[in-house]
Design a protein that fits this description.
6-stranded parallel β-sheet, Rossmann fold, 3 domains
Length: about 550
């Protein structure tokens, strides 16, 4: 959050809206994603006063605005702010708070509120935000007195960024924003992150010495460049097979010989089977949640499989699966400490090569019926990506294709919602391009997810950024159709979709649109999209019958 600075001198009188804007600047928050509302007009005026130091991104829907702020935090490791109006605006934005909580992303959400003197009268758009957001945020509060703005914002930033990062929701009573107060700004402070107990590192070495089939599962958030380099050094030095958690593909260089794939929705069944055979699991940053552990079935909850779990929040250690060793530590600090451990001669090199062989087999181009082979398309896309490309992904069956057929290298980033929130991909790729305007930003989204927040492409045009969006169009809610065909074969109910011409849609905004129906059309279309310099969309018209990368609808109906 920048170097600590304390402001002790009292300032001239300022209205609460300006005090809030200054508080954000004091903590290094330089982006606010917002849909404006009359409930925080004075804050908007305050943001105008600091417009040279803080960028206000005007969005088209509150869900998109909060998703953008979450993606910005996920990619940069520092919080952005989102602002929404009271009542309906807060309800629309709630999904982004849920994403940030489950994904452990630092985020500040400010919600305009009714005048506090009208509380409990069922006033226009009144909601008790402590009750509404309590289950899905790290902390929820309300500011009713302007003099407390610096204090509460400072604490909110501390809560959002320390321990297990997450979202903080702050309601702003209407009249508080107008109050004239003399109050000092507060800057960030240094908070020492939790360090691993040296004794636990010795114990970790002992457990490794006993292992023959270890598996590292990498997850978590807010990894720094130094932390990534250190954990890579530890994992490569010990020749440990590395799987990444659900939608955490870019936490580890997929081109390295010890990368073995991802555990999550659509994971390679062969990898899942080998994971069940592991005699030591190193869960580094992973909460070992439902998706990663295949519905909490992958390991023995009683601790039959030795698990070493590293996490900054002790509450998460052993929460479901009883661990052999829990290490409470900031992930980057742990990585640096682990990198100093002498690797010795691993007894599992053949096991690592075996798991890597499974990854290479699953990742290879596969034959599919129909004119558009997504496995070939994604291999070609991977070859065309710059070394620092940023990719975002929506939720849906289509997302299993890039997870299977693409390997992301060290400089690249790939993010998606671990809570399975549809509508994330388009706002996220816009936020990626805003955060890193010089880098290529590509968003993967299904036809269902695009129609939830696709209007946010207007935000890209408004703020002069040019992401590239790939729409996987199979004219259905694919994930639900998959489960439907498994449980109620041939009884299609509610999952078919009618779509617009997606390419023409972005052209209506002034962007570049392409439609790809054959494999050989993709690479030229992608190059034209890049060369256009405009926000671009490529619609991939995929075979509806090929419901996943491993199964057709006919196979599901036949129980296969």
């Amino acid at each position: 959050m920048g170097s600590p600075q304390m402001h002790t001198a009292r300032t001239a009188p300022r209205p609460g809206g300006r005090v809030l804007a200054d508080a954000l600047v004091s903590h290094g928050i330089d982006h606010v994603f917002a849909v404006p509302g009359e409930s925080y007009l004075d804050v908007l005026d305050g943001l105008y006063a600091v417009r040279e130091r803080l960028t206000l991104i005007t969005c088209r829907f509150e869900a998109g605005a909060v998703d953008m702020a979450e993606a910005f935090g996920k990619l940069t490791g520092r919080p952005a702010a989102a602002m929404v109006t009271r009542g309906p605006g807060a309800c629309h934005g709630a999904i982004g708070v849920h994403i940030a909580m489950q994904d452990s992303t630092p985020l500040l959400l400010f919600v305009g509120q009714i005048p506090f003197e009208e509380t409990d009268r069922d006033s226009f758009q009144e909601i008790d935000y402590r009750r509404m957001f309590g289950p899905v945020a790290k902390w929820v509060t309300q500011i009713d007195h302007a003099r407390r703005i610096p204090e509460i914002v400072a604490h909110a930033v501390d809560v959002a960024t320390t321990g297990r990062p997450g979202p903080v929701v702050i309601a702003l009573s209407e009249e508080m924003q107008k109050q004239e107060v003399e109050v000092a700004d507060l800057g960030p402070i240094e908070i020492s992150p939790p360090n691993p107990d040296p004794a636990t590192l010795v114990r970790l070495q002992e457990l490794l010495a006993q292992a023959r089939r270890p598996l590292a599962v990498l997850g978590g958030s807010c990894w720094s460049e130094a932390g990534r380099a250190a954990i890579r050094s530890f994992l490569v030095g010990h020749d440990l097979p590395v799987a990444v958690g659900f939608r955490r593909q870019a936490l580890y260089d997929g081109t390295l010989p010890n990368f073995v794939g991802d555990l999550g929705v659509g994971a390679d069944p062969a990898l899942v089977a080998r994971a069940r055979q592991a005699d030591l699991v190193l869960a580094i940053g992973s909460r070992l949640g439902e998706a990663v552990t295949q519905g909490y079935t992958l390991f023995d909850m009683a601790g039959g499989t030795p698990i070493v779990q590293v996490h900054p929040d002790p509450v998460e250690i052993g929460r479901v699966f009883r661990t052999r060793l829990g290490i409470v530590s900031d992930l980057n600090v742990f990585a640096v400490a682990a990198a100093k451990l002498a690797p010795g001669k691993p007894a599992w090199s053949e096991w690592t090569r075996d798991l890597r062989g499974l990854r290479e087999a699953a990742n290879a181009v596969t034959e599919y019926a129909g004119p558009l082979n997504l496995s070939q398309v994604l291999h070609e896309l991977q070859a065309m990506l710059p070394k620092d490309a940023v990719l975002t992904c929506d939720a849906g069956n289509f997302a299993t294709w890039p997870a299977r057929f693409m390997n992301f290298s060290e400089g690249q980033r790939f993010i998606g919602p671990t809570n399975g929130a549809m509508g994330y991909g388009v706002p996220a790729v816009i936020a990626a391009k805003i955060a890193f305007p010089e880098r290529m930003a590509i968003g993967f989204v299904g036809d269902g997810g695009f129609m939830m927040t696709g209007q946010e492409i207007a935000t890209a045009f408004h703020h002069g950024v040019a992401p590239i969006i790939l729409v996987f169009n199979n004219q259905m809610y694919g994930t639900i159709r998959m489960y439907q065909e498994r449980t109620y074969p041939e009884r299609v109910s509610g999952t078919a979709l009618t779509n617009p011409d997606f390419a023409r849609l972005i052209e209506a905004f002034g962007g570049h649109g392409e439609v790809v129906v054959k494999t050989e059309e993709f690479s030229p279309a992608f190059r034209r999209a890049v060369d256009s310099g405009k926000p671009a969309l490529i619609e991939l018209r995929v075979d509806p019958e090929q419901i996943t990368s491993r199964a057709t609808i006919a196979q599901l109906r036949a129980g296969r």
